[in-house]
Amino acid sequence: MLQTSGFPDLKASWSRRSLVFLMARPALASIEPRPTLPPGTAPTFNTLVERIRAEYIEQPGLRLTEAQASRLWRLDEPTTRHALSELTGASFLKRTEDGRYARPSSR
Prior knowledge:
Radius of gyration: 19 Å
CATH architecture of the domain at 45-102: Orthogonal Bundle
CATH topology of the domain at 45-102: Arc Repressor Mutant, subunit A
Strand content: under 5%
Distance between the termini: 35 Å
Largest sheet: 2 strands, antiparallel
Oligomer: single chain
């Protein structure tokens, strides 16, 4: 059973996922934020490609469509397509039969 002591304002209608998130929040606060660019600085294309590469390395089972990748990295569709094409051309990624981009070793 999920323990909710220490959370006196919890409502009965909250989902289990919300409760788990609230209970894990102190642990999440200790995670270091990723470095960001200074305000007003636009990333170079190579920076974007390396960021995408790092995400795929960090999450080995990651399989994304172009639209999902655009939303995840907040890129326009042509930039996303070009970056994924670069990584596919370098054999870092492959495009699966269902149109998702994944590492060649992931299924």
